Every structure is written in structure tokens, then in C-alpha cells.
């Protein structure tokens, strides 16, 4: 700077134009580079250390749906205390570029205070958010409260680049007056500590306007801006500081113009409060008993998914005593679970299952974050058992007995069945649709009352007795526990009458004659009965229940040959001795979906075959296989687009230059120009020197030459 003729000791000052959106978002070394830049400007070449100014660009326009995202970036930026400490040490003026949109101010029929409030929401949003933030952003707040200098909009006429000011000059005069009023009023209402602001002055001649008209109108706009700044400071009304910028001048009353379709943007009001770091539990909130329900815990800021710069451990819990959580659909299942959202990520998946029907509340909590809750509604599973009451009954000839049926799923949750009633063949009596059994008036005997619903049947024994018959009893000893797959075995029971005893079975078993057959794991209830005859009453039935354990199983899983990093997906083959389907998991440089393996990189891959069992088989022991994946040649990453200077070039040259810089040519517009020959680029949509994503489009404006 000294070599260029600048003299800081003689009052010269420096300003940086401008900090890019990469600084706001913390991309790469952008913040570190700017810290070094302002430090170097402050220190100079060994002469007096002098603070300077910084212009910083707004990463979004005033009218955009991205305000919540911008606010979250701004909050992250405010947490960077070393950055703001450096700004406080080296910078005296912090000028936020706030090139507003007239359509968010000039709302027809709105009051002066409503307009001022809408302007303040936008012009002061950076300072407002810093004032609302927590103690951890004290460095940013302290600096902004001393250096914040909003740069308002006096650029005219623009549809982009400097906000939106494509209106006649007299409406633009109104707009700069209103911005001045809002800026001056905010300063006075906050104790005068923010009485520094500026305007972007960049008038542009509209198409078709003569040079004389342009000079007259842009001059009038400059005069109005100067008068508004002067008059805003001379207002003597303490209740409305700065309103002199809007006071009557001749025939005009400023700060009242209307633009068709204008509307206030409430999104900028959200900067009055700090959006806390929060959690959310996402996913379908309904399931059936024991179903593995996939859910996600998400890091959020202001309702947006927002990553953290370090891993976040989230504690998950459920209010249900029979509810469990797991990192995968196959477990392991625990009543509480910690999941980790990795650095730079927003989500972590987990699973929930509950064997109790009803409502359960899942909670997610993490240090320094607002906790989240999700209520899961669990429905009972399919009807699995029907129980009749009473389980056995004896009635005389012509007597009656009312039966009732209750249902449950496999986990004991009540299920309300709609049953069909019947009696077994040979039972001396009938039963009504409501479950009322009426015994035969003439013939005694025994049988079963049956209730059926959804393919499930429950039964109760019924004995119809005749008078003066002798009693008899059945001797039936306990049955030992068994295992699914055991061979059939005979049953033994005798009646004191000497009459033959018959058997029935309920549960995971069947009986033919006196031979019992096991059909599944669970339990088996065997009932011995003797229906009597002309001399004996039916004997009281005796039931014996025994447990049937699940059978063991094994997995057969062949090894996998080593692969290359670019090998295609391939299928796995494994089988279980039970015949049940085998599932797979993968770790290392691979992933598995169903039974297909996808290679994700070089290194090792570990595959595990699992069979968790079912109602009849225990889980098989997992079988692991590993193989090596050799590296493939690295792919060249995509280039970035460095925007070239295109103004002054012929269109063909400009297009070739765009392609060489990894950009794309966007829409081409044409405009008359007295200064530029036909076919020459006179404007481009992206500023020369910007670095954007490869393939970004650049809109060109081509001169038609002077209007004929």
C-alpha cells in the first residue's frame, strides 16, 4: 500500500470488497484467508496499525425460500469466536450488503410503521440475530454491536444483482427515503449506538431512455437520497426519530408508494430469536406388535436438517416396558439405545419394536440440544389364540350353559374376535350364535363346544349327564417336555370304569387315536376324556400341558473369492438346515442388500450370514466369511467453473472460453447498444473471477448495435 502511494498516517484507510458467501458458510479456507487478509492490512508495512472496513455479500436475495437455511449458516458463523475476535482487532466497520427488493416494502395500504418494521427486519437482521444469540457467540455480538454498518439499496433500475428496483425514478426516490427513515430510526431507538449506514449507488440507464432523461432522473434520485439523509437527522419528533426522511417536500410525501403485487416477507422476522440446536425423531408412527419399525433421529436447526462439526451421541428411550430399540432390524434389541450421528451428517437410523399394544413415547436427547419425542401407536398382532370360558362344563338333560370367547395375539395382547359357534360331531346338544349351549333332553353324552375366528379355533368340553348313572374318573399322568422334531409318542390314560379313554390335543400338537404328533414349538395341551355309557356318567376330563422347545439349526455358507474394487455386484448363497431364509450383513469396504454384495472401495470385506430363527427354530450361530478387495485406478474429480471475463468478446469466442473454464452457456439475450458493435458481449450474469460448481450456466447479453 505504501508503494502504491497510500499514507495511513495521513488519514488514508482501507476496505475489503467483499467477503464472499464461502466465508458465511465456512467453506474450505475462506474464513482463515480473510482473517489473514485483514490482519495484513491492519499491520501494514510496519507503519501505524489502522483498522479498516469490510463489505460482506448476502448469500441469498431478500425474496427467497432459503432464508431458514441462511439463518442456520449465520448461526454457525457466529459460533466461530476466533474469526470474530480477529474482526474486532482489525476491522472498525462491518458493512453488510443489503440490496433489497422494493416488492417487500411498497405494500399498498400499509402503514408507515409497518413498512419501517419490514425494512428493519431485513436491514438489521445480522445485528438482530447476534443480539438474540446465546453467550457462546459473545465475540460476534460484541464486534457487530460496535461495527455493524448496513449497506442499503440506492441502485436503480435493476431486476437482479442489486436486488429489485425496476420502477420509475420517483418510486425509487420513495424507497431510498423509507430506507433512510428505517436506518436512522433504528439507531435512535437503540440509543444511537448504530448511527452508521450507507447506500449502494449504481444507477443504470433503462433501455430506451434518452441520455438527458437518464441524467435528470438519476440526478433527482441522488438529490432525494441526500435530502433524506439530511432531513432524517433534523427530525425533532422524539416519538418518531428519523421520520424527517419521509416528511412532505413540495408536492411529494415520501415513504408511501405502492408496487403492484408487493407483500411483506415475514421470514426476516425470524432473526429476532435464536434457533436452538434440536433433535427430531422421524418415521411412520404406527406398527403392529413385535414389528421392527424403521425410524430416524435427525439433528436440526430451525426445523432444518443441519450437520454438526463433531459426532453427536443421541440417547434413545421408550416409555413402554415391553418396547425395545436396536441399530438394525435384526437387533441386538435393548430397552435404551445410544446412536451416533457422525461428524458432518444429520441422520442416524434405528429400529423400534414393541410387544405391548397401545401408545408408547420414544424420546431422543443429546447434550446441548432440545430433546424430541415421537408417540408410536402399536396395534395388536393377528389373532393367535381363542380361550373359552368355562373351559369345561357339565349340564343335565335339557340344561343350558352360556359360553364366552376371548382372543389374544402371540404376545398376549387382547384381540376382540367375532366368533362362529359350533359343537363337535356327536355332542348331545346345540349352541346358538351368541354361545348359549342347550343340552339334548333325551340323550346324555359329551362333546366339545367350538369357537372359530380368523382360522383360529378354541374349544371347551361339555358333558350332558343323565340321572342315576355311576361316576367314573380318569387317571392321566404328567407329560414330559419335548423339542420340535421329536418323534411321535403314545399317550396313556385309564378310566376307573374300564371304558376306553379318548384324547384331544390343542396347541402345537395333534393326536390320532392314542399317538401324539408335535407340529411346532410352544406348548401342547392334551385332554383325556371318557364320554360314559348307559351305566356311567362321562368322566371329568383331565388335561396335561407340556412345553415344546424350539429346535436348533445350522448355517452352510461357502467362502467368497477375492475381488477388485470395480467388480460388479454379486450374489451370496447360503442355506440353513431348517430351510429358513438366511440374511446377510457386511462391514468394511462393501455393503449388502438382500443377498447381493456391492463393493464400496478397496480393503477388506467381512460378510456374516444369519438366521434368527422363528417360532419353531432357535437362532443359528452366525457364520462369517471375509475376502480382500484390491484397489482400482482413482477417478479424476470434477473440475470447478472459474467464471471468465466475457464482456467485449464476440459471442463465439465467449462460448469457447466458457467451455474451457468448465462452465456452460445459459440463455442468450440481445439488447441495443450505441457503444458496442453488434455480436459483442455487453453483460454477463456471473461476475468474472467467481469460482462456482462445474457446469454452472452463464447468461450472456449480446449487443444488437445502435437502434436504427
How large is the share of residues in beta strands?
Answer: 25-35%
Oligomer: single chain
How much is the average pLDDT?
92
SSE class? alpha+beta
Strand count, sense and closure of the main sheet? 5 strands, antiparallel
Low-confidence stretches: none
Number of helices: 10
Describe the structure.
By secondary structure, the chain is α+β, with helices and mostly antiparallel strands. A hairpin with a 5-residue loop joins strand 19 (404-408) and strand 20. The two termini are 48 Å apart. Helix 8 runs parallel beside helix 9 (211-234). Strands 6, 8, 9, 11 and 13 form a five-stranded antiparallel beta sheet that branches. Strands 7-15-14-10-12 form a five-stranded mixed beta sheet, with no helix packed on it. Strands 17-25-24-21 form a four-stranded mixed beta sheet, with no helix packed on it.
Write a short abstract of this structure.
It contains ten helices and 48 strands. With 708 residues, the chain is of the alpha+beta class.
List keywords for this structure.
single chain, elongated, alpha+beta, about 20% helix, five-stranded mixed beta sheet, Immunoglobulin-like, about 700 residues, five-stranded antiparallel beta sheet
SSE layout and pairings?
Elements (H helix, E strand, L loop, with lengths): L14 E5 L1 H5 L4 H14 L8 E5 L10 H12 L2 H10 E6 L15 H12 L1 H8 L5 H10 L3 E3 L15 H21 L8 E3 L10 H24 L42 E6 L3 E3 L4 E9 L2 E2 L6 E7 L4 E4 L10 E5 L5 E8 L3 E8 L6 E8 L5 E5 L2 E5 L3 E3 L1 E5 L5 E2 L4 E4 L5 E3 L4 E4 L5 E9 L2 E10 L8 E2 L6 E2 L5 E2 L3 E2 L6 E6 L1 E4 L2 E4 L3 E8 L12 E8 L5 E3 L5 E2 L5 E2 L2 E3 L6 E6 L1 E4 L2 E4 L3 E8 L12 E8 L9 E3 L8 H10 L3 E8 L9 E4 L6 E3 L3 E7 L5
Parallel strand pairs: 1-2, 2-3, 4-5, 7-15, 17-25, 27-34, 36-43, 45-48
Antiparallel strand pairs: 6-8, 8-9, 8-13, 10-12, 10-14, 11-13, 14-15, 16-19, 18-23, 19-20, 21-24, 22-23, 24-25, 26-29, 28-32, 30-33, 31-32, 33-34, 35-38, 37-41, 39-42, 40-41, 42-43, 44-47, 46-48
Amino acid at each position: 500500500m505504501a508503494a502504491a502511494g497510500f499514507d495511513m498516517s495521513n488519514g488514508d484507510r482501507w476496505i475489503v470488497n467483499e467477503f464472499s458467501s464461502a466465508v458465511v458458510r465456512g467453506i474450505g479456507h475462506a474464513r482463515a484467508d480473510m482473517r489473514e487478509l485483514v490482519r495484513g492490512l491492519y499491520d501494514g508495512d510496519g507503519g501505524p496499525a489502522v483498522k479498516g472496513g469490510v463489505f460482506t455479500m448476502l448469500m441469498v436475495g431478500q425474496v427467497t425460500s432459503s432464508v431458514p437455511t441462511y439463518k442456520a449458516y449465520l448461526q454457525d458463523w457466529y459460533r466461530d469466536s476466533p474469526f470474530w475476535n480477529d474482526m474486532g482487532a482489525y476491522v472498525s466497520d462491518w458493512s453488510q450488503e443489503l440490496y433489497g427488493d422494493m416488492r417487500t416494502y411498497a405494500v399498498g395500504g400499509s402503514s408507515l410503521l409497518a413498512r419501517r418494521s419490514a425494512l428493519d427486519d431485513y436491514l438489521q437482521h445480522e445485528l438482530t440475530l447476534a443480539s438474540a444469540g446465546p453467550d457462546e457467540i459473545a465475540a460476534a455480538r460484541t464486534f457487530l454491536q460496535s461495527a455493524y454498518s448496513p449497506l442499503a439499496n440506492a441502485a436503480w433500475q435493476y431486476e437482479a444483482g442489486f436486488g429489485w428496483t425496476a420502477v420509475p425514478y420517483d418510486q425509487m426516490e420513495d424507497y431510498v427515503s423509507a430506507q433512510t427513515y428505517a436506518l436512522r430510526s433504528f439507531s435512535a431507538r437503540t440509543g444511537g449506538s448504530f448511527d452508521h449506514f450507507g447506500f449502494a449507488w449504481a444507477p443504470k440507464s433503462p433501455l430506451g431512455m434518452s441520455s438527458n432523461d437518464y441524467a435528470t432522473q438519476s440526478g433527482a434520485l441522488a438529490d432525494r437520497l441526500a435530502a433524506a439523509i439530511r432531513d432524517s437527522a433534523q427530525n425533532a419528533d422524539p416519538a418518531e426519530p428519523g421520520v424527517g426522511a419521509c416528511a412532505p417536500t413540495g408536492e411529494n410525501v415520501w415513504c408511501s408508494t405502492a408496487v403492484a403485487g408487493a407483500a411483506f416477507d415475514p421470514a426476516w422476522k425470524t432473526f429476532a430469536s435464536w434457533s436452538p440446536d434440536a433433535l427430531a425423531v422421524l418415521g411412520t408412527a404406527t406398527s403392529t406388535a413385535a414389528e421392527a419399525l424403521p425410524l430416524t433421529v435427525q439433528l436440526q436447526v430451525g426445523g432444518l436438517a443441519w450437520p454438526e462439526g463433531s459426532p453427536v451421541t443421541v440417547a434413545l428411550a421408550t416409555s413402554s416396558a415391553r418396547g425395545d430399540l436396536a441399530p438394525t432390524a435384526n437387533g441386538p434389541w435393548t430397552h435404551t439405545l445410544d446412536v451416533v450421528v457422525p461428524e458432518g451428517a444429520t441422520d442416524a437410523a434405528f429400529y423400534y419394536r414393541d410387544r405391548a399394544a397401545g401408545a408408547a413415547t420414544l424420546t431422543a436427547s443429546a447434550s446441548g440440544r432440545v430433546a424430541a419425542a415421537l408417540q408410536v401407536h402399536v396395534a395388536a398382532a393377528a389373532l393367535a389364540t381363542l380361550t373359552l370360558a368355562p373351559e369345561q362344563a357339565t349340564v343335565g338333560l335339557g340344561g343350558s350353559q352360556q359360553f364366552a370367547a376371548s382372543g389374544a395375539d402371540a404376545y398376549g395382547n387382547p384381540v376382540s374376535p367375532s366368533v362362529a359357534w359350533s359343537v363337535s360331531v356327536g355332542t348331545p346338544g346345540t349352541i346358538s350364535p351368541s354361545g348359549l349351549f342347550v343340552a339334548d333332553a333325551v340323550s346324555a353324552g359329551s362333546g366339545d363346544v367350538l369357537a372359530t375366528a380368523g382360522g383360529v379355533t378354541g374349544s371347551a368340553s361339555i358333558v350332558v349327564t343323565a340321572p342315576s348313572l355311576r361316576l367314573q374318573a380318569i387317571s392321566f399322568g404328567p407329560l414330559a417336555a419335548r423339542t420340535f422334531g421329536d418323534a411321535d409318542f403314545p399317550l396313556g390314560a385309564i378310566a376307573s370304569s374300564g371304558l376306553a379313554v379318548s384324547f384331544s390335543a390343542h396347541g402345537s400338537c395333534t393326536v390320532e387315536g392314542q399317538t401324539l404328533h408335535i407340529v411346532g414349538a410352544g406348548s401342547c395341551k392334551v385332554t383325556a376324556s371318557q364320554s360314559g355309557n348307559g351305566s356311567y356318567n362321562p368322566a371329568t376330563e383331565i388335561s396335561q400341558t407340556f412345553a415344546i422347545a424350539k429346535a436348533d439349526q445350522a448355517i452352510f455358507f461357502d467362502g467368497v473369492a477375492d475381488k477388485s474394487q470395480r467388480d460388479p455386484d454379486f450374489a451370496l448363497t447360503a442355506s440353513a438346515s431348517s430351510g429358513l431364509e438366511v440374511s446377510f450383513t457386511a462391514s468394511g469396504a462393501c455393503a449388502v442388500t438382500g443377498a447381493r454384495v456391492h463393493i464400496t472401495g478397496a480393503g477388506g470385506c467381512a460378510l456374516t450370514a444369519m438366521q434368527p430363527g422363528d417360532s419353531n427354530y432357535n437362532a443359528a450361530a452366525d457364520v462369517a466369511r471375509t475376502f480382500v478387495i484390491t484397489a482400482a485406478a482413482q477417478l479424476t474429480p470434477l473440475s470447478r467453473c472459474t467464471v471468465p471475463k466475457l464482456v467485449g468478446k464476440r459471442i463465439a469466442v465467449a462460448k469457447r472460453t466458457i467451455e474451457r473454464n468448465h462452465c456452460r452457456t445459459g440463455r442468450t439475450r440481445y439488447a441495443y447498444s450505441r457503444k458496442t458493435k453488434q455480436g459483442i458481449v455487453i453483460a454477463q450474469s456471473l461476475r468474472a473471477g467467481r469460482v462456482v460448481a462445474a457446469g454452472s450456466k452463464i447468461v450472456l447479453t449480446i449487443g444488437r448495435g445502435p437502434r436504427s
